[in-house]
Amino acid sequence: GMEENFLSLDDILMSQEKLPGRAESSLPRLAVLLGQGAGSAESVPEGSKLEIPLWLAKGLHDSKRRIISVELPKIYKEAWRTVFSADANVVDLHKMGPYYYGFGSQLLNFENPENPEIAQTILQATGGGSVLAVSDSVCSPQTFIARFRRIMDSSQNAYNEDTSALVARLDELERTLFQVGQKGLNDFQCWEKGQASQITASSLVQNYGKRKLAEVDG
Questions:
Q1: How high is the pLDDT of residue 62?
Q2: CATH architecture of the domain covering 9-71
Q3: pTM for the predicted model, two decimal places
């Protein structure tokens, strides 16, 4: 899984998303943090079912010592992967999880036999939510590609319109893409009307070019 960027507000919020899990050993002084007790000195007993924030789950996870075990949230399980493969556009990703792509990539940090299938269903976002940097790190971006086409079509065909209904079902990465598409359309319309002297490259494209040059120089 990719590492979070803790200078990114989106990544900080994503790290607070919770995973279902189980305490495989006693967890000293974590009862209050995990909603299992009232006192700061209380421990979580072995075998307790938990809802663990992603940042804490990653900190406690150890492949050699069984401290906690983590389960897949339902939206990443086989039943939902089947829905995505049938028609990814019908799913309200924001309702199911506002950080579907980024959070899904973080699940790959935990040993799970379904990890290859999860990686094939989602597009792993890298670089703390960078939109164009994602393309290098995926096996088969089925969900993202299926939804990306509609997102960009919508962004290019909604000029000076209320787009709240269009973005309501999108996860945060998709909303960023929609906004990029809208900005590009608005910039073009301004240029076409003579209201702008030139069309400039998107900052996302510029950053992507700089990253590629850095890789070559390295």
A1: 79
A2: Up-down Bundle (1.20)
A3: 0.58
